[in-house]
């Protein structure tokens, strides 16, 4: 039995928690197996925060091998009710060049082989069987969390792009030029590999989820040169991780109280009998 001792979750790299004082490392298990790594609990801006390295320490898990169900379940079992999910993306439109911070309001799922629901009819270890549930997902991100993220960016002098569609691909390879042009033509703003199923699993657990995307490259279609290189992605991420951390930490402090939230995230299952108890 895990004690509830965090309220806000941040799924991101070790750059977001490694320098905090008084961080407690907690190993959490879930009915879906272990999450990407230990969860690191600490206090930030007066809030109890749980940090989870999405790719594990040392970045050993590729996007398609991340146990997204375990990650979100683990956070909720610790008491988390609001999640911030920063991630690196490619820009699909020329105006969204490296260093752009975009807070998406939509996503398109182009992943192929990921577990993306808790309601799959498989019994949990305790014997409870989830019912067939169709979760409302028209608006995949928390409107309150988005508002806070945008305000926090502006407060740090980093004018964000307010809205846009995050296309999530299976990876781990980057897109071909044809795929990239297609994603742009269908209205995609940015493309990444981890934003889904993170968002939908959060919604299934009644968690508020906000994605903050940092553009590290122009994707293959918008790029006139050699296409995306990993070295370039790392370089741009390194240049921006400091201010992304500042924005995240400001956002943590500015998120609404978790108790009494009334945003759409909390109503996704109104009228449904889930068949299982959420942790
Ligand atoms: Zn919400």
TrEMBL record:
Indicate yes or no for the key word NADP: no
Q: In which pathway does it act?
A: Purine metabolism; purine nucleoside salvage
EC no. given is 2.4.2.1
Alphabetical list of InterPro entries matching this protein: MTAP (IPR010044), Nucleoside_phosphorylase_d (IPR000845), Nucleoside_phosphorylase_sf (IPR035994)
Could you say which residues bind phosphate here? 14, 54-55, 194
Q: Which UniProt keywords apply?
A: Glycosyltransferase, Purine salvage, Transferase
Cellular component GO terms held in the UniProt record: cytosol
List the molecular function annotations (GO) for this entry: S-methyl-5-thioadenosine phosphorylase activity
| Class of enzymatic activity (EC top level) | transferase
NCBIfam families, from UniProt?
Answer: MTAP, PRK07823.1, PRK09136.1
What role is this protein assigned?
A: Purine nucleoside phosphorylase involved in purine salvage.
Q: What else is known?
A: Although this enzyme belongs to the family of MTA phosphorylases based on sequence homology, it lacks several conserved amino acids in the substrate binding pocket that confer specificity towards MTA.
Subunit and partners: Homohexamer. Dimer of a homotrimer.
Q: What is this protein called?
A: Purine nucleoside phosphorylase
- The species this protein belongs to is Streptomyces triticagri
